[in-house]
Amino acid sequence: MKKLINEPKNFVDDTVRGIIAAYGDRLQLLDGDPRILLSGYPTADKKVGIVTAGGSGHLPMFLGYVGKGMLDGCAVGNVFASPASSKMAQMIRACDRGNGVLCLFGNYGGDKLNFEMACEEVEFDDIKTEMILVSDDVASAPKESSERRRGVAGLVYAYKIAGAAADRLWSLEQVCQVTRRALANIRSMGVATSPCILPEVGKPTFEIGEDEIEIGMGIHGEPGIEVRKMMRADQTADVLLDRILDDLPLTEGDEVSVMVNGLGATPLEEQLIFYARVHERLSALGVKIYMPHLGEYATSMEMSGLSLTLFKLDPELKELLQAPAQTPFYTNLNKGEIV
Amino acid sequence: MKKLINEPKNFVDDTVRGIIAAYGDRLQLLDGDPRILLSGYPTADKKVGIVTAGGSGHLPMFLGYVGKGMLDGCAVGNVFASPASSKMAQMIRACDRGNGVLCLFGNYGGDKLNFEMACEEVEFDDIKTEMILVSDDVASAPKESSERRRGVAGLVYAYKIAGAAADRLWSLEQVCQVTRRALANIRSMGVATSPCILPEVGKPTFEIGEDEIEIGMGIHGEPGIEVRKMMRADQTADVLLDRILDDLPLTEGDEVSVMVNGLGATPLEEQLIFYARVHERLSALGVKIYMPHLGEYATSMEMSGLSLTLFKLDPELKELLQAPAQTPFYTNLNKGEIV
């Protein structure tokens, strides 16, 4: 294992220490707890709180989206492991401003169970909560049982929409409604070409042959739907796009935002080459692309590969997508309209 | 070789096609030439032009800094190879608005030779040019012959300062003066833990042992000053920081911007762990950090490792650093003061 880290068992705490060292003027830990990060940006009274939680090792997912116009708080666990429900409950309490808190997170067993317990716990403090599970990965279950699908990079769009809705001081019900509508329009799928190594394990999480690519793999190394011989970027884009379009049909005149997400070790050059094909295919369908997102949004440490996310827009969703957001790790201020 | 690309020989053109597909509303090619990228952002008349050039394979360096408040144009060559002088000359002509053009680039033989020829060529069109070579890599030559040093991630700060000065409609002389002052205050050094593969070659550019780290390596795989047994992040930070501080002494009350630059495959988590140590060391010296930059700024495709850059600020340089800049690949709008 060749990682620029210190003690493997301190990987998460050391990472969070780095976040606070760099961005302590705009992010803060709840009572110094390195597993509960809160926004330090100015926030309107009465705003509905938007929080998430998940395992570490996916930066900028999850911690990186705490900030203005996105998340108010995030609890993280160990690498690829859910944080405890008690941490989630503390975070929810800290992010409630009297109008409730939306718990918006990926559809993973541990996170779901713990968030359920946390929401029950804060009910005793009369804090109103709602849970929305993100399950955008089309490869992880068939359409008929889409509620079993995993949440991947589509979470970023969900945070963006929910955060913008909350910033407009919408009620918890309204925030949930528009977030659910956004999620109905978001689909993702990924490929991996090399695994990552868990710091405390020191060995790759899975193996991929020298000449192979795994289609539909999860960001924790969950097996994909198929292992193929290594493919060209264009062919890879076609495979992912076909599967997504099968689930989210698009027709001429539709408008989408496209996210190409590097899983950690995939150069920007490769993401752009892949994107060129997605753009070509969507253009041929008469589909317009608005505010593409290229870069690293939900990684698996040094895994290589990428995922594709499509987010079909309507006028309201587009407005919420373009509402200004800034966290130390994400902003749309250099995207969208040119000012 | 496992890259998500199409024909290896089309790597650069396909990448640029992706850039235009994604950002064609704000960037444009000069007469459709995929090797000459120009800003499409609104630009003031009479602004001094700021241009650069270099090899491909380092995104976001170089193309990624074309935009508002940074570069007006960038010419790129093949992977790790300088573009032809004729391309540079065309770019300079396109970026001149009557007040001259600053050619700001890394200190590499090919780029220097070609820019010299290009500047001579445009002299016939009465275009005033200045060349400033960036040589921030302290590992690449001793202090006494610092003019031989290579240019690495410090280029980003140089683009930022020159771009902000030009945006204020300063004269070419004034822009050069402040850029030179900035460069006198910028130092970098990097380490590599794994090589990258050139698309058309298909083999790693160099070898590093399973348990080794190369100190002071260049972003094209230029040999470093020392190969060591793999080190912890803290120790690595100390090695780079000590060498940089030896060259750029800092004392209590000084203010610096710090850039931790992932070389391509290094997770954000590791960059943050490394940064925590840099922050700790500088804090112990009484040095303040302003607007840290963490992420990928000058890569070597899928090389793993990172570089550290320190930029010592004075009030004017700080103001120019914080002047708003936005390109599709870079912005400081989510850095600096919180609005």
Uncertain segments of chain A: none
How far apart the termini of chain A lie comes to: 46 Å
* Rg from alpha-carbon coordinates of chain A: 19 Å
Oligomer: homodimer
Taking the sheet with the most strands of chain A, its summary is: 7 strands, mixed
* CATH superfamily descriptor of the largest domain in chain A: Dihydroxyacetone kinase, domain 1
CATH architecture descriptor name of the largest domain in chain A: 3-Layer(aba) Sandwich
Q: Helix and strand string of chain A, N-terminal first? A: HEEEEHEHEHHEEEHEHEEEH
The CATH topology label of the largest domain in chain A is Rossmann fold
What does this entry look like structurally?
The structure is a homodimer of 339-residue chains. Chain A is α/β, with parallel strands linked by helices and 339 residues long. Chain A has two domains: 14-184, Rossmann fold, CATH 3.40.50; 186-313, Dihydroxyacetone kinase, domain 2 (Hypothetical Protein Tm841, Chain: A,domain 3, 2-Layer Sandwich), CATH 3.30.1180.20. Helix content of chain A is 31%, strand content 23%. Chain A contains eight helices and 13 strands. Chain A has helices at residues 11-23, 85-95, 109-123, 154-167, 172-184, 233-247, 268-284, 315-322, and strands at residues 27-30, 33-39, 49-56, 73-79, 101-106, 129-134, 186-194, 212-215, 226-229, 255-262, 288-289, 293-295, 304-312. In chain A, the strands form two sheets. In chain A, strands 7, 8, 9, 10, 11, 12 and 13 form a seven-stranded mixed beta sheet that branches. In chain A, strands 1-2-4-3-5-6 form a six-stranded mixed beta sheet, with helices on both faces. In chain A, helix 3 links the parallel strand 5 (101-106) and strand 6. In chain A, helix 2 (85-95) crosses helix 3 and helix 4 runs antiparallel to helix 5 (172-184). The first copy, chain A, is globular, with a radius of gyration of 19 Å. The model of chain A has no long low-confidence stretch (mean pLDDT 97). Chains A and B meet through helix 1, strand 7, helix 6, helix 7 and strand 13 of A and helix 1, strand 7, helix 6, helix 7 and strand 13 of B.
